């Protein structure tokens, strides 16, 4: 300890301690002069051309010369030598990796630099967040994780005051709102659309007050500045080892002396920059990608530039002052100048860097990575929740933190975006997969403890994670009986269709209380069976509907039974029962002219002479295809010798037994099977010709299908009918040499189709599935794409399951596959997309809210990020599409919604990746499987509440595990606690966004979100935090900002003058007052109010209850 103190004392002698961090450490800007804020910085991508570790350690320099550890080593050394120098750092993932390897002496020096404001953190999240493909929940989590590291290490001096989003490819409104509520005073951006930037430069509108959310009002306002040079130095003034610009040579005896010319050139640059801003302050970024590996080169030249420029200014009376600064200090200087700012209420999407370079392709690029990132978030929320609900050991936090870190990396603007090299994408997946797998330790402990009642008992079940997106699960495929365990991560009851891959057979499904529940066996679609990466023997899926409790766990027991096991169970049934079916059949055939035949005999009977007039669902048979000739043929049901219900039941049972014309005699022994079991044993039970149109339906909606095309034509609800057509298409990517805008290729970043009309996919087969649980319309195309539309019993939406790939590139052209939902909704060129999965923003075809746009790319220029939801509407109907991952979308034609599903391209777009976006697997093009859910609701009604809840449910779908139970009897299983309810049902409008262990003293992090719009009825909701959990008791709470790194009562909001007032609602829905504070009541009162769109964050003391 003495040695440590001596080290600290020795280190502190170098620079006297002056603990003035933050704004107090700033060099004071002077009135009446142009204050030039020199801001040294480095932009360190957390993966892009190299992996995270390759960037940190400086390996693979043949790809890019970059080593983050050397940057931090070098910068700290140079800062320590001169107290006037400043530096900012952004990516906590890299800083923390470096910090953990430093000696006490180096850590002490860093601590001094931070406390004196010489090293300042900006941004401060684990990585520099993408703003298009990222979801607000993951953004909040990764900011919380990075900021917590900084706060716990450097206390209040480690709290960043500004956001630093200099490289993301467009900027979202929700992100601005989140930062404002995390306590940031300002936000600086690098990239905005080139036409927007030109207009802002001309109008001195490069700095503005951005309102992040209309419903939240002032608390979501944040000062926003657009940097002049994106984030690079002024041309000619890059002093890095990676640059070729001339250094400042101040030796008067050298023939290369250039001080005068260099200073004059710099004055010209900053004078030009100053004309774009409204105060006497200019921020000059001095750095770029992975700069400062030799920080001495930079600081030596900057020292000279500042010194000689100030000398010349003083000598010539130029009223220019250069000094080292930071974004924090620049912001303070602007605030002290008290400018009047323009306002902004929309966002900065889409981003174009030139007339043909619309950065809208990355909204969809690498769709499997985007899907896995979404899954990773669900696993993270589950792990955090169960660590608390299960009262699990403290040491589990190691694996929990590993998953937090991996998910933080995935939010990086070259990770979830899909804009990295292929080997880097592979490394992201490796990292996340390992973290998810390790985090299952928490789930398995919680499931075992909550079901068995004792964490010390050996676990009965394995709780295996399966590849359900490939309909693959070795555990269920190879078990005679197995247990399905499901976790529901949302705060309300959920009905969720569960599909478990199995081999063909008869299965029984038992609910947690032991009751046998309805299930249906369906064949796995052929395109899924053919996915190259699929390694499975499953041919079918057992489908059932699970009723799940809030933050609940349920287990279902499923067993495969042999037909012979029930041979004697119903022996009292008469042996001639099925023999009599022959007589029934004879009568029915005579009076109705129905011919039913087995699919397996189809080749022998190619023609149908008798047909029936309407779609007829017979029992639970798996497939039925029906046609019509005489509309009156079955009009009079009462004349039939048996009732229709009896007919359906008998045919359902009888045809399975009478396969191959096998007629049972009265005295013949046979297996006693019920209808469901027979249906499960039959691959293709019945085939009957179809009418011109038919329906798939449930109690909420119908889809009318045109038999001749296999297309859906209408969606019918009790009170309205909507025309509906679902068409899959592809765009052909433009190919060019990228030497000029006209020759720009479509690539990982850029979407640039060759034509303005897509190529439709050609459908070749159409199959229908009918059953008690699910009805499906399956369609395959000639172009390696398939579509499956599903309607489940009891659910008010239909699901579109699609499989795309391998995309054919043998013609030498890249392709970008889309689906277009075509309706008769009169949306007049207006559509709405979500902002990071939260608020909805109005989009108008071919327009921008704040500047006049000219579109040379009318398709790509109208694409927007769809993180979770897109919809169109008219006065009567709103058509909502919910996505299972982030995608690009638009409404290019009246009444239509288009979403891009997959991209495979053969040329790079020349924005740095240096590779074509040509993903492969198993020596073939990558196959993508995904799903959309479509809602048809009435706008302006409480049905919008359903839409909001469904969007959250789609993002946080229940997580399913499967365990072998061959050695666990039903009698053993039923004695377990197979149903756990962690949360009481929350009021409508309330979402438990975060339930996370915070510290070992029984403190947890709690976020309560109101997902309602202010225009909705009863949009302010009361919540009693003391009465929401079933096995936890909240004792006290203290409210923090959104990032949980500052007490809410200590958070202050800067006031700015604006040119104009904000409109009440930028989407023009309602007239609402946005100027009230929405923080709600503070203190330890457990009864709180949560207002529309508000997220309230608390550190809560709690205790577990039995």
Plain-language structure description:
With 1106 residues, the protein is of the alpha+beta class. It folds into four domains: 2-20 and 28-362, 7-stranded beta/alpha barrel (Alpha-Beta Barrel); 568-670, no CATH class; 726-955, Beta-galactosidase, Chain A, domain 5 (Distorted Sandwich), CATH 2.70.98.30; 990-1104, Immunoglobulin-like, CATH 2.60.40.1360. It is 24% helix and 25% strand. The protein has 21 helices and 49 strands. Strand 4 (162-165), helix 7 and strand 5 (186-189) form a beta-alpha-beta unit. Helix 1 packs across helix 5 (104-115) and helix 13 runs antiparallel to helix 14. The radius of gyration is 32 Å and the shape is globular. The two termini are 45 Å apart. Residues 1-17, 590-644, 657-671, 683-688 and 1069-1083 have low confidence and may be disordered. This is Alpha-mannosidase. Belongs to the glycosyl hydrolase 38 family. InterPro entries: Gal_mutarotase_sf_dom, GH38_C, Glyco_hydro/deAcase_b/a-brl, Glyco_hydro_38_C, Glyco_hydro_38_cen, Glyco_hydro_38_cen_sf, Glyco_hydro_38_N, Glyco_hydro_38_N_sf.
Assembly state here? single chain
Helix content: 10-25%
Strand-pairing-aware structural class:
alpha+beta
General shape: globular
Could you say how many structural domains there are in total?
Answer: 4
Give the name of the CATH architecture of the largest domain: Alpha-Beta Barrel
Q: CATH superfamily name of the largest domain?
A: Glycoside hydrolase 38, N terminal domain
The name of the CATH topology of the largest domain is 7-stranded beta/alpha barrel
Q: What's the rounded overall pLDDT mean?
A: 88
Helical stretch count?
Answer: 21
Distance between the termini: 45 Å
| Main β-sheet description | 9 strands, antiparallel
How big a fraction of the residues is strand?
15-25%
